[in-house]
Specification:
mainly alpha
Length: about 150
């Protein structure tokens, strides 16, 4: 009986040590340094975040200028052309494609607004011309009426 108790005690201790080891492995952080590839990816990601911050400031300044926005689209396209085929630049390429889509949408919006302003200006000029003709005809009619009164 004593041997059976000792064996059970040893098994319980072994189970406790195994449980503690598994628990510790889940809670202790991995202390191995990142590989060179992981460090490169982290650096690329950090550079991308800095680039995104800088480009968002440039984009804010150019937001109301079609010419400046077209230059930004060309710049993104050049970077896409340069990085195409580089598997580590997938995040940058995705960002550039999204930027082109967003900027092109803004260019289209500005173009529509500009055409609407031009149309409104043309309508206003047309209305002004009609009013000027009406005023000229009114003045001509008044002069004719005055001339008739002086004749009578």
């Amino acid at each position: 009986m004593r041997i059976l108790g000792l064996i059970l005690l040893a098994l319980a201790a072994l189970a406790g040590v195994i449980a503690w080891t598994v628990w510790r492995a889940d809670t202790v952080p991995v202390t191995t340094p990142p590989s060179a590839a992981q460090q490169g990816q982290q650096q690329l990601h950090a550079q991308l975040q800095q680039t995104i911050q800088h480009e968002s400031e440039v984009e804010k300044q150019a937001w109301d200028s079609i010419d400046a926005l077209v230059k930004l689209v060309k710049w993104h396209q050049r970077r896409i052309d340069r990085l195409t085929g580089n598997p580590q630049a997938a995040e940058v390429l995705t960002y550039d494609r999204d930027s082109i889509t967003r900027i092109q949408s803004r260019i289209n919006q500005l173009d529509v607004e500009e055409k609407a302003r031009e149309l409104a200006a043309a309508e206003k000029a047309k209305e002004d011309a009609v009013k000027a003709k009406e005023v000229a005809l009114q003045q001509k009619a008044e002069r004719a009426a005055a001339a008739l009164k002086s004749v009578n």
